[in-house]
Known about the structure:
Order of helices and strands: HEHEHEHEEHHHHHHHEEHEEEHEEEH
Helix content: 40-55%
Structural class: alpha/beta
Radius of gyration: 22 Å
Strand content: 15-25%
Largest sheet: 8 strands, mixed
Mean pLDDT: 89
Number of helices: 14
Strand order of the largest sheet: 7-6-8-9-10-11-13-12
Low-confidence stretches: 107-111, 246-250
Amino acid sequence: MERYIQAHVLSDIKKKLVILTGPRQVGKTYLSRQLMANFQNPIYLNWDVPTDRVTLNHQSWDVRHDLIVMDEIHKMTHWKQWLKGVTDARPPGTALLVTGSARMETFRQAGESLAGRYYSYKFHPISVKELCTESNIKPREALDHLLERGGFPEPCLAENKLDADRWRIKYAQDLIREDILDFSRIHELNAMKLFLEILRDRVGSPLSLLSISRDIGISSVTLRKYLDILQALFVVFPIHPLNKNIARSLSKSPKVYFYDQGLVRGNEGVKLENAVACMLLKHVDFIRDTKGLETGLHYLRTKDGAEIDFAITTDNPLTHRHELTHLIEVKCSDNTPHATLIRFAKQFPEAKAVQLVYNLRISLKTNGIIIDDMASYLSELEA
């Protein structure tokens, strides 16, 4: 299948270096191969392959290559400085694509600057929008399929659920055995596994590392490091509360969700919330990466415990202000407008307030709230 960012990346690599990040097995290599078909003399170099590593270290590839795909180069010492040099010295007409997962996000931080030299994309699992577009199926069928299989290409597109389940077991084993060891010491693996299991049961709830620390006897500082590792590996993503200009919205604890739907434990409501979180994050990242508008995904929670599942903010190109644009609540079957959503809709009339219902007979608008079918709404997101 043609992935949702393929045309955008193809256009951009003809202009600048493109850095593509995302979870393990989300399809980065497959997309790279598809892009290579658009060039006359491309080359794919993977740091994990010894012969490719020599070529990368010595920059000894043929200058006639019109596309150079470099995978996992974040494992190279001083890779940002090295990549800056490669970018500046490349011959005219040579396209560069860098792919990776863990640590690649640090290119925005300390080290040699790549400012003005690159476009970046975060590559996400398959969503309702993408599955409907590529498979020509109805939104509800697509959502149900993703709730069962998750959005990673191999289990999502597998012939049967058994193959999907076998993939997931192997995925989790490889993640812990290979990727996590890149960040931590081997004696920490059991503690990391325990923390990961705890997170699987706390999806969608404000996360108190101090409370977990007391429960399992690991310092909150260490748990913060573990959470950072899992985030860097694209295993989980945190959503932080939106506090600006919101009275009594004092909660600072993030909520944590999984990129792989199959790792979520909980009832139907929890699994639906995780699925919506994944697709909303894909939506806001796509807007940021393709349109250059700073867009964020948050949640709202006041001191008295009133909470809205998701809030989207984005830059307004007309006013040049960062504005709250959407308030979103997730429900399984409740068609009655959520009281807290009504409350925030009145407080922020400029934001579109939407209650997404999985089992909904008919969409309607009442008390300033749009009650909408969850699958249909997700199928109309940007990506």
